[in-house]
Design goal:
Layout lengths: L4 H14 L3 H11 L5 H4 L7 H22 L6 H5 L5 H11 L10 H38 L4 E2 L2 E5 L5 E3 L6 E5 L4 E6 L4 E6 L7 E6 L5 E6 L4 E5 L4 E5 L6 E6 L5 E6 L4 E5 L4 E6 L1 H4 L4 H13 L18 E2 L4 E6 L3 E6 L8 E5 L6 E7 L4 E6 L4 E5 L7 E3 L6 E9 L2 E8 L3 E6 L4 E7 L6 E7 L8 E6 L3 E8 L7 E9 L14 E6 L5 E6 L4 E5 L2
Parallel strand pairs: 1-30
Antiparallel strand pairs: 2-33, 3-4, 4-5, 5-6, 7-8, 8-9, 9-10, 11-12, 12-13, 13-14, 15-16, 16-17, 17-18, 19-20, 20-21, 21-22, 23-24, 24-25, 25-26, 27-28, 28-29, 29-30, 31-32, 32-33
Protein name: LisH domain-containing protein
Organism: Pichia membranifaciens NRRL Y-2026
Subcellular location: Nucleus
């Protein structure tokens, strides 16, 4: 901050007027014509401004010295009361710290000698700064080890979005949906974007998903329409069978089939090579199951009476699906069951098994082909683990109080564990064999974890989780430890989302989806309101 000569003259002129020294004020006015600036400065300069600024300057100088003396940012009230706060003390300290000789006008010879002295001082100061920077870096590393949480900034922003997806084999390629009937494929390498425009009838795009090989992209619209795009942004085909918003899209491991589920519990399996439907499962399909399953449907229908308006009530049984292999898949069924289905040549007898046990809507389903175990979670926070051909739960994990938002099978030192997050604001690592929680952490103030994404990494030091909570905060976590006894989840980063406007503050919006790049160097976070962000991961 600097003060101009005119501003100093105006403050002195005002002080002389306020003190009744009219002749002195007139003399200054005659010499500097400072009165011409009265209309500019007068509305902003209060009475006694000069004295007030001098007093504050002296107080600031004393407080700075006090902080340096006690080597802490905490100042006690008694310290302030005991300050020797007067004008002459301040002048004495100025003369002590900066003698008059240092402020006088120097001759040319003295100036050259002073310049050399300043250059030496500058070099010494630069060396000192480098040493301090090295110490700060060491302290930062020590702080990270001791639980330091780094506030991270975004690499780039994109418009508000419901869905985002990094290419599975190209960390520099990303796709996201927008709130204007468009989706975007963006390349970090060329800093270019390709827009995928949809008709207005499609409404908003809810999901974008890359194929397993990253050669094509599928978009799901609010009206139930699916569109398949090439990596260059060319429309390859339109898949129209759903009439309601899509809640889940899952590719088969080979990428040949696509499984879609809408909010009315209708599941469709598409053959991407031919754009044909190879499986269609709805209430009519369920009725062709065996007698025991048919009874289950009848009981559920009896509890699902029509409303007073005469229109039927539709109960959503779940929002997630998964593939067991390239031909078998799992979808939510009536009475919150899990239906094990298969792709058949004639679309008959698609349901081959029913898993019962959940008492509320299915929110997460995850299968691991190495373990050959299936885990599922419902909105009451209960997690069930299933194995092989058994229709009974192998294990039931209870601990979350609200709906589970993420389930992941993870390995630590070649041992398997289960990772879960939930709307109760907690994240847990489970020893699912012993049915116990290994570690439990919660986000700040217990905010609901709306979505999360896990990056396995190539070794145990690269396992990280990113969570998005109901306050709009994005937390970065790492998993530490190499054995069951010392496994810990630790927060290492925080990104705080907010929308800057010139108007009144607006809601920050909720985190709608999180996606990792294939190399773990970046993570994209979509927000329903305000700017979405891509964050660099150290």
């Amino acid at each position: 901050m600097s003060v101009s000569v005119n501003e100093i003259n105006y403050l002195i002129w005002r002080y002389l007027q306020e003190s009744g020294l009219e002749v002195s004020a007139y003399a200054l006015e005659d010499e500097t014509t400072i009165n011409q600036l009265d209309s500019v400065y007068s509305p902003h300069v209060p009475l006694g401004c000069l004295v007030d600024l001098v007093q504050k300057g002296i107080l600031y100088s004393k407080m700075t010295d006090l902080v340096s003396a006690v080597k802490t940012d905490t100042i006690m009230q008694d310290d302030i009361i005991n300050l020797n706060f007067n004008f002459f003390t301040a002048l004495h300290e100025i003369n002590t710290k900066e003698p008059t000789e240092d402020r006088k006008i120097l001759s040319l010879e003295e100036l050259n000698g002073s310049k050399q002295t300043r250059e030496r001082s500058s070099e010494e100061e630069e060396t000192k700064v480098k040493q301090e920077d090295g110490q700060q870096q060491e302290q930062a590393q020590d702080g990270e080890k001791s639980g330091f949480i780094q506030v991270v900034k975004g690499l780039m922003n994109y418009d508000s979005s419901y869905s985002v997806s990094f290419s599975p084999n190209n960390p520099e390629l990303i796709a996201w949906s927008q709130r204007d009937n468009q989706s975007v494929i963006y390349s970090f390498n060329s800093n270019s974007e390709t827009k995928l425009s949809l008709p207005l009838a499609c409404k908003e795009t809810l999901i974008v998903s890359w194929s397993p090989k990253g050669s094509s992209l599928i978009t799901a619209s609010e009206n139930g329409e699916l569109r398949l795009w090439s990596i260059e942004g060319t429309l390859l085909s339109t898949l129209a069978m759903h009439h309601w918003p899509i809640v889940s899209l899952r590719w088969s491991p080979s990428g040949r089939y696509l499984l879609s589920l809408d909010i009315r519990n209708v599941a469709v399996v598409w053959d991407i090579t031919s754009s044909l439907v190879v499986a269609h499962l709805d209430k009519e399909s369920w009725s062709h199951a065996d007698k025991s399953f048919n009874d289950l449907i009848s009981k559920d229908s009896a509890n699902n009476e029509s409303s007073s308006t005469g229109s039927p009530l539709y109960k959503n049984y779940g929002t997630d699906t998964c593939w067991l292999d390239d031909n078998k898949f799992v979808i939510p069924g009536p009475k919150y069951t899990l239906l094990v289905c298969q792709v058949t040549s004639d679309n008959s007898n698609s349901i081959i098994g029913v898993l019962t046990g959940h008492e509320e809507s299915i929110c997460c389903v995850k299968y691991d082909p190495k373990l050959r175990l299936l885990c599922s979670a419902s909105e009451d926070g209960v997690i069930r683990i299933w194995k092989g051909n058994s229709t009974n739960s192998l294990q039931i994990l209870r601990g979350h109080a609200l709906a589970v938002s993420m389930l992941e099978w993870i390995t630590i030192s070649n041992r398997w564990f289960l990772l879960s997050t939930a709307l109760d604001g907690t994240m847990r690592i489970w020893d699912f064999v012993q049915n116990e929680t290994i570690d439990l952490v919660s986000v700040d103030q217990g905010q609901a974890i709306l979505c999360a994404s896990f990056y396995q990494g190539e070794d145990d030091t690269r396992k990280k989780i990113v969570t998005g909570d109901s306050s709009g905060s994005v937390c970065i976590w790492c998993i530490e430890g190499d054995s069951k006894s010392n496994i810990k989840i630790r927060q290492v980063g925080l990104y705080q989302h907010f929308e800057e406007t010139n108007e009144e503050p607006q809601e920050s919006g909720f985190v709608s989806e999180i996606s990792w790049s294939s190399d773990g160097s970046k993570v994209a976070v979509s927000f329903s309101v305000g700017k979405s962000v891509v964050i660099g991961i150290p």
